[in-house]
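At this stage, I wrote out one protein, both as residues and as discrete backbone shape codes, and that material follows here.
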Amino acid sequence: MSENQGENKLQKFKKKFKNSYKKVRKMIKRKRNIPNEDIQQHGNNEIKEEETDTSSNLQQNQPVEGNREIKHKNESIDEEPEKKRLRREKEIGHGDDSSSPIEPIKDESIEMKQRIKQLEEELSKQQKHENELENLKQSYKKLEEKNVILLSSNESYKANYETIANNIDSLQKQLEEKDTELKGKEDEFIKLEEKNAEL
């Protein structure tokens, strides 16, 4: 769950709590304004009787005093449903599970645990990849070192080869020189033999 979603849920909960608090304050205020005499005097059965009396009195067009009595009865009739409505609102405000902060906090806690678990798994995978990458780097480093050794050996082999080749050339030249020298001595020996034969 992202931080914005958590913040939105918190704001909704605060708003809900504030509205419930306002409703309770209104109920308390209204309850204080209702006279105790009216609360004690009027029940559900009396309301029904007063409604019938009121309708009959209105049809008969009673005088001013009767109208006052009708008005008083109507006010008491209106007050009883108002008390019931306030009681219902109070029950809804305090008994509704949806306004309770326990469930959202519980859900949020579960989501946070799941998110933490997911992040831990991702972190474990990332750590594994980092270890593999480090192993690859070490292997590459060893290969580079071997390559340097091989290159250096190759250079050494080349230098040795050139030295050997130069030595071979030098020996070949020396052999050619010796061969020329021997050939000259052979010619000289033949001439000496010819002179001896003449003598």
